[in-house]
Write a structure and sequence with these properties.
heterodimer, A: mainly alpha, 2% strand, B: 149 residues, 5 helices, 67% helix
Chain lengths: 502, 149
């Protein structure tokens, strides 16, 4: 049964290859996209189930036992992340059917999407830090291409910042991996968890930890190098924005969780204090940045940054409750944030703009769409009883328990800022009357729109997930709790990968 | 002049024209030789793919894009996808015989006399690399040539 652990990587890879082979037939590529992402979702759920039963699922590629070969391994956190990848991938595939212009489809939209998903799933599942780097590159190269697909001026401008900073981060990551190998002679994460503790030179270990913090911090869009994200995420097609918003930065966050619970746990006072202040400033800068924006997707982009702060905060507090909160937050955030981007695309389809000044009147003509915005928006801001409330509640409570008053204060303040931004969007897009020069044919339904249900389907589905997490939070909380327990006992992970060795 | 020349090629001589026709099969053969030799000796899928691309690129410079597309029969992207499929297939044979993914499998074929051929998933992977490199590079070269026109 342990073969199952590789399938979530193989499915998107196979789908990418098949899509390229059927380069000439766009309709075939569309079918492959739906079937492959659907299969990915099903397999990932089965994998989560298997991981819950066994704790860990491990496979050594090519039968080369760890620590020499590449290990593919899931613990509960990885399995949860892969399920989220499946959910987002499937939603985006459906959404893309109606929102991707034919030109984009002809130039490899679907193969790139599959590659991106393969890179993301690979990053979540690998147990080897060099292999992690490779999956990062698979993911980033696809994202570069997706970001510039279409080749408009604004896209190029955003892409330059995106590519420059991400390449810098990759170079830093690669150097750090090289230094880790020089210091310990191993690349296997579980093996590193043991060996770094034995390194005499603590200064070296802390330096390496800092390099990883910066490298993953850039990928996660944490302060101070977050500005590539709001500069680029509002430029591509909305389906691509939503895919990036849901998954890419969270890979950085996942890696921080993996590295700073498994590998760099020797000097928690030092590393996690830096993470703590990084998290605080990230929250603030994201929240304040959003307040100054008046473009739908840019506001949402800045709020990715602020929310990343909460997730890192959960890791930085490093108490059992805080880690539970962090894992819960990641689950909630991926679904909600993707959904908000999908709603922004829906509004764009109805009114033809992302600029708040050019929008309005959606509540009057389409109250259902307004409701679909309200669910994720209020959830993001942390209004009970939606998923975001519990996520924030757990983290803030964890902060209070360790008397981290300043950071808890910042977290609460940023919650208010988020609410402010969501209300701003609500007032401008949904309440205010439509500006006179805007064409409202599609909004009022005067001009029929055949593909609209394809946009609504994933939005409704993701909103249902949000409601489910909020209204029956107990099973999700238990899952996060079990994942956190594994993260705080790295010995279990090490034993699962390396076998019975000491 | 059979068709419009790309501006990449300023000089169009009979020598180049004829040489490209003669060299194409030789270079393809040589690339296959490199591919098969590559497991224990210098060679392998990547280098062989480069050599094959070189052969087609030379033909492209001498005879133009349309003629090249005609002899290729498939889009470069299709070669690329085919290569990826070969690579995946080499990973999938391991689990079919109950071993982890990517575990190398070896089969020896005895042809009469003292001749034996070793077939392996490693070779399959190399073939995948060959087609991927060929497809990716041809995509670049052909796109650039078309952009020039």
């Amino acid at each position: 049964m342990s073969h199952l652990v590789v399938i979530p990587i193989l499915i998107p890879l196979l789908a990418a290859a098949l899509s390229i082979v059927s380069w000439r037939s766009v309709s075939l590529q569309r079918w492959i996209a739906i079937i492959a992402t659907g299969a990915l979702l099903l397999v990932s759920i089965a994998l989560l189930q298997l991981t819950r039963e066994h704790g860990f699922v491990v496979m050594h590629m090519g039968d080369w036992a760890a620590p020499f070969g590449i290990t593919i391994v899931t613990d509960l956190l990885s399995a949860i992340m892969v399920v989220l990848t499946g959910i987002i991938g499937f939603s985006i595939a459906i959404y893309s059917l109606a929102t991707t212009p034919e030109g984009h489809e002809r130039f490899g939209y679907y193969p790139l999407m599959h590659r991106l998903l393969a890179g993301v799933a690979g990053s979540f599942l690998t147990g080897d830090i060099f292999n992690l780097y490779v999956w990062f590159e698979v993911m980033l190269l696809s994202s570069f291409a997706l970001l510039t697909l279409g080749g408009e001026r604004a896209q190029m401008e955003g892409a330059i910042k995106y590519v420059a900073l991400n390449l810098f981060s990759s170079a830093l990551l690669l150097s750090a991996i090289g230094l880790v190998y020089a210091t310990t002679g191993t690349l296997n994460m579980a093996d590193l968890g043991q060996k770094l503790a034995q390194v005499e030179h603590h200064g070296m270990v802390n330096t390496l930890a800092m390099m990883f913090i910066v490298a993953f911090g850039i990928k996660a869009a944490a302060f101070p190098l977050f500005f590539w994200l709001p500069a680029s995420y509002h430029t591509p097609l909305v389906g691509i924005s939503a895919l990036f918003a849901g998954l890419l930065t969270k890979v950085g966050v996942y890696c921080l969780y993996r590295f700073f619970t498994l590998i760099f746990t020797g000097d928690v006072d030092y590393t996690h204090t830096i993470l703590l202040w990084g998290a605080g400033v990230t929250m603030l800068s994201g929240g304040l940045g959003a307040a100054a924006q008046s473009e739908f997707r840019r506001i949402l982009s800045f709020h990715i940054v602020s929310q990343i702060g909460y997730m890192i905060l959960g890791l930085a507090l490093y108490t059992p409750l805080a880690i539970v909160g962090g894992v819960f937050y990641i689950m909630h955030h991926i679904i909600v944030k993707t959904n908000l981007f999908l709603v922004s695309g829906l509004v764009y389809r109805l009114l033809g703009s992302y600029d708040l000044k050019e929008l309005g009147g959606v509540y009057r003509h389409r109250p259902g769409v307004a409701l679909l915005f309200l669910i994720p928006a209020l959830s993001l801001a942390g209004v009970p009883p939606l998923s975001g409330f519990f996520a924030k509640f757990i983290i803030i409570r964890a902060g209070i328990e360790v008397s981290a008053w300043t950071i808890t204060g910042i977290a609460l303040l940023v919650g208010l800022l988020t609410l402010y931004s969501m209300i701003k969007i609500w007032v401008e897009v949904f309440w205010k009357t439509v500006p006179e020069n805007v064409n409202t044919d599609r909004l009022t339904g005067a001009k029929p729109d055949k593909g609209l249900w394809l946009l609504l389907l994933p939005i409704v589905g993701l909103a249902a997930c949000t409601l489910f997490i909020g209204l029956s939070g107990q099973p999700i909380y238990e899952l996060a709790d079990a994942a956190a327990e594994q993260l705080l006992n790295p010995a279990l992970y090490i034993e699962a990968v390396l076998g019975t060795q000491p | 002049m059979p068709e419009k020349r790309s501006s990449l090629v300023q000089v169009n001589t009979v020598i180049l024209h004829t040489a490209a026709l003669l060299l194409l099969p030789l270079q393809i053969l040589f690339s296959v030789f490199l591919l098969l030799r590559g497991h224990d000796e210098p060679g392998g899928g990547f280098i062989a793919g480069l050599v094959a691309t070189g052969a087609v690129a030379l033909y492209l410079f001498a005879h133009g894009v349309e003629s090249t597309r005609r002899i290729l029969r498939f889009e470069p992207q299709e070669f690329l996808g085919l290569g990826l499929l070969f690579g995946l297939a080499s990973a999938l044979i391991g689990p079919l015989v109950g071993e982890p993914f990517f575990t190398a499998q070896w089969y020896t074929l005895y042809l009469g006399g003292n001749t034996e051929v070793k077939l392996s998933t490693v070779l399959l992977f190399d073939v995948g690399v060959y087609f991927t490199v060929l497809g990716a590079l041809l995509m670049v070269v052909i796109s650039l040539t078309e952009a020039e026109d």
